[in-house]
Amino acid sequence: MREEILSAGIDIGTSTTQLVFTRMFLENISPGAMIPKVEIVDRQVIYRSQIHFTPLLSPTMIDADKVRQLMEQEFINAGVNPADIDTGAVIITGETARKENARQVADALSLLAGDFVVATAGPDLESIISGKGAGAAKQSFDQNSIVANLDIGGGTTNIATYEVGEVIDTTCLDIGGRLIKFEKGGTEVTYISEKWREMTRRMGMPVKVGDQLNRQQIDRIVDRMVEILQEVMGLKPATNDLAFLIGRGTRDLHRNYRLDQICFSGGVAVHIYDQEPSTTDYQYGDLGVLLGKAIRRSSLFQQLSVFDAVETIRATVIGAGSHATDISGSTINFSRDVFPIKNVPALRLSLKDEALPGAELAKTIREKLSWFDLETGAQHVALALKGHRNPDSQYVQELADIIIQGMDVMIKLPQPLIVIVEEGFGKVLGQSIEAKLKRTLEDKKDVICINITAGTASEMTRFCIITNEQTHIKAVWVMFMPWHTSWEFAMACPTESAMPFCFPML
Fold first, then answer.
1. How much is the pLDDT for 126?
2. CB neighbours (10 Å) of residue 256?
3. What is the domain partition of the chain in residue ranges?
4. pLDDT at site 346
5. What is the per-residue pLDDT for 91?
6. What is the dihedral of CA 350, 351, 354, 360, to 10 degrees?
7. In whole angstroms, what is the distance from residue 286 CA to residue 262 CA?
8. pLDDT digits (tens, 9 = 90+) for 411-436
9. Rounded to an integer, what distance in angstroms lies between the CA atom of residue 19 and that of residue 25?
């Protein structure tokens, strides 16, 4: 039996704010009388909002009231009642994620329609989101190849590289179309970012607010941006300027692989692919149009195989609002009632990761956790993995040790340690982790471990239900994108009985 749910995705970026509505179709793919396994079998984007410039009160503050008004009007324009939304995601990305009230704005918007997932995306996570929305992950999976997406927006260039659908590399550069802004109709500088003030100084032509730039000066700045992109993609030797422009909380690409294809998304990609040929060079009062045209002429197009992204300016919001599924399971461990838990990003290990020796796997977990770091430090992240089908005791104990080593940063946080296993040994793994932590930690650490393979419990359908034996209150877990993807969000919501899941995730 096919069911439908309606998802909303909201992206508040450096330059633009937008919304999409996606209809998702779910079916039970288990044959006959087998335990139900419901999956998303199709997604249709049914509404794309206007693309609004992100309203600001000041260079460091988002205009929360104005953003909310814009989104409320888009609900009206789409003919969608907030009560009809089954799930949603609100993310703040790019330079906007650095604003003082970024998280408060996201939380306020989430109230538009129930329990949205809310995230202030760090640079690496934003790279992964936009790469999925642009179609780079799917292209690499379908073509059995290595594909990179460059999401070039107003304030940042977010790059994610995929190998057969799996993320293998990410970075973020302070290169974007609105890092220098001009007064309307002219080229007098009204804004220049701190890093590009320094970059123009290094170029021997320091630029400040109030300067009147000529076309030659503007072209030099744009060309230097393109050169840095060529450096990061391995087409030119890396310079100190590349290191300087790598965003806080991320690192340079490894460049230890051969790219098969690349694509571009973000607002600047509209002009890279010449999707708006009638746009004038300074129509938006920034460098975006010229930057896109310069990339089109560069060796990025001449030396690399470029394909058209599925989405350009909407890649991030499509990635946030259109990729989700659910979990279910029957072997669960949790140390005490710490629910509800909302908006927890999850790092999902690839099968290639899981095949690594123990020490290397622990190191990989630590490195990949940094994808989710914000400028304020580490955020609460869950770990998800497949695991062995029929594990023996030695495997479970060794895996518990690896998780404790790799998740050390998470264990030091006050929130519970959350582990999700695809195979059916979540309870014994959780108990093993809990026992080992008791021997090494002075204070008790809450551990939640859940598997996503459906068990035999009669109440299990397309979500997982955790029951507190003392209070008899149940927690319904709903989360995650399909397992060939690489970033997910989760929610646990307590309820008096099994209820239809609300599917709130990115």
1. 80
2. 8
3. 3-121, 125-317, 332-495
4. 79
5. 76
6. -70
7. 25
8. 999 889 999 888 878 888 988 998 89
9. 20
